[in-house]
Amino acid sequence: MDIYFASANKNKIKEINGLLPASFTVHGIADLIQGDLEETGSTLEENALMKARAIFKLTGVHSFADDTGLEVHALHGAPGVYSARYAGSQRSDADNIQKLLEELSNKLSRKAQFRTVIAYVDGKQEKLFEGIVEGTISTQTSGTMGFGYDPVFIPEGDSRTFAEMTLEEKNLISHRARAFRAFADFMSQFR
Q1: What is the DSSP letter of 188?
Q2: Is 66 a catalytic residue?
Q3: Whole-prediction pTM value?
Q4: Cβ burial, residue 144 (10 Å; 0-12/13-18/19+)
Q5: At 148, which CATH number?
Q6: 3-state DSSP assignment of residue 97
Q7: 42: left (phi over 0), alpha (psi -120 to 50) or beta
Q8: Which letter, b or e, does each residue of 71-98 get, where b requires 16 or more Cβ atoms within 10 Å of its Cβ?
Q9: How many domains, the chain?
Q10: 2, 36, 67, 93: which is the annotated catalytic residue?
Q11: Which domain holds residue 148?
C-alpha cells in the first residue's frame, strides 16, 4: 500500500521504513514540493496535522506527518516545538546543540524528554499518535550516528547517547519508534 510521509528528510524516511510493515511503500515528498512544508503551529500536534493535511490534499493518498520536539525541564519545555530552528532559521543541528548546551551550562537539572506526534489523514479520518522517551542532556556531544539532538540525548536506562547507538538499538526505545509502533498497529487494519 502506498502512503506518503510529509518529509524530505532521508534519515527519517530510512528510520520509518524500518518501523512500518513491509506491506507499505512509504514515499517522501522530495518529488512533490520544493522546500519545507509550513510549520506555523504552536504545538507539535498542530504542526503534524498541518503537514499531513497538505500532503493528502496534494496526493489524495493516505498521508502522515510527524513533528518532534526535545523538551528540557530546566528550560520550561524549550526548545519544544522550535527544536529544529532553536538556534535560528538556518536549521543547523550543530548550532542547535551548541545553544542548548550553553543554555544548560548553569542548570542543575538536565532532565529532558523527546516527544513525537504523528498525524494521519486519509480524507475520512484524522488520528494522532504520540511517543515519549525520558532522558537527560549530556554536557558534551558523543557519537556519530543519528541526527538532530541525538549526540547529546541519553535515554533513561542507558549510559549512551542516541548517536552512540545503532539505528536498530535506537528504534527499540526511541520516541519516534514508540509513536510509529502505535501508528503501525493502527495501519495494520489496511493490509
Answers
A1: G
A2: no
A3: 0.87
A4: exposed
A5: 3.90.950.10
A6: helix
A7: alpha
A8: bbbbbeebbbbebbebbeeeeebeebbe
A9: 1
A10: 67
A11: 2-190
Q: What is the pLDDT along the chain (191 residues), one digit of tens a residue?
A: 888 999 887 777 877 777 777 888 888 888 788 767 778 899 999 999 999 999 999 999 999 999 999 999 999 999 999 998 899 887 799 999 999 999 999 999 999 999 999 999 999 999 999 999 999 999 999 999 988 999 999 999 999 999 999 988 998 899 988 998 899 888 877 76
Helix axis angle, 10-17 to 175-187, nearest 10°:
60
- The grid coordinates listed for 70 are 526535545
**Residue 98, C-alpha cell as written in the block:** 551548541
| Residues facing residue 47 across a β-bridge | none
Cell, residue 46:
498542530
Please name every residue paired with 132 in a beta bridge, in sequence order, or none if there are none.
115
The CA distance from 103 to 90, in Å, is 19
Cell numbers 528504534 label which residue? 171
